[in-house]
From TrEMBL:
This is ABC RTX toxin transporter, fused ATP-binding/permease domains. It comes from Yersinia pestis bv. Antiqua (strain Nepal516). Keywords: ATP-binding, Nucleotide-binding. GO terms for molecular function: ABC-type oligopeptide transporter activity; ATP binding. It comes from the Bacteria.
């Protein structure tokens, strides 16, 4: 986590988050994303992530395949294109639904 001292003196205009929430459970990731609005306000943010829920609210999402940008649009626009991003999104949604069902039905 970035320290308050860093923010006080550096005040960067560009932030890069590389898999910043990849090791977190869904609940922790959601909580951090809620608090990020304050940190990223009035800054350019580049987010690198495999977990698509991390980039869902970004203005522009670039899908990179074999080193090339193959899709570039907002989350909703990418879903409408029905390309790689849409397929990955559906896979992750399906996985999370199955995980949720298993958690609810598994005995303690």
């Amino acid at each position: 986590m970035l320290t308050p001292l860093f923010w006080r003196y550096a005040n960067p205009r560009i932030l890069i988050f590389d898999e910043a929430t990849s090791a977190l459970d869904d609940e922790s990731q959601s909580e951090i994303q809620k608090n990020m609005a304050r940190i990223i306000a009035n800054r350019t943010v580049i987010t690198i992530a495999h977990r698509l829920s991390t980039v869902r609210h970004c203005h522009r999402i670039a899908v990179i395949t074999q080193g090339r940008v193959t899709e570039l649009a907002s989350h909703d626009e990418l879903l409408q294109l029905n390309g790689s991003y849409a397929r990955l999104w559906q896979q992750q949604v399906h996985f999370n639904q199955n995980k949720s069902t298993l958690t609810k039905t598994s005995p303690l």
